[in-house]
Specification:
With 50 residues, the protein is mainly α. The chain has one helix at residues 2-49. The protein has one domain (1-50). Keywords: Membrane, Transmembrane, Transmembrane helix. The chain crosses the membrane at residues 29-49.
Length: 50
C-alpha cells in the first residue's frame, strides 16, 4: 500500500513538472502571438491615421 502510494506521488510529481513546463512553453507562444497582434494593430492604426 505504502509503496504504491509513494510511486503514485512520484508519478504525479513528474506529471506536474511536465505539465508546468508545457504551460510555460504555451505561455511563451501566447505572449509572442499577442505581441505580434499588438504590433500589427499599431501598424494598421498608424497607417490609417498617417
Amino acid at each position: 500500500m505504502l509503496i504504491s502510494m509513494r510511486s503514485g506521488t512520484r508519478w504525479n510529481c513528474s506529471r506536474v513538472a511536465w505539465f508546468s513546463g508545457n504551460v510555460l512553453h504555451v505561455r511563451k507562444i501566447v505572449l509572442f502571438v499577442v505581441k505580434l497582434m499588438l504590433m500589427y494593430l499599431v501598424f494598421s492604426f498608424c497607417r490609417y491615421w498617417l
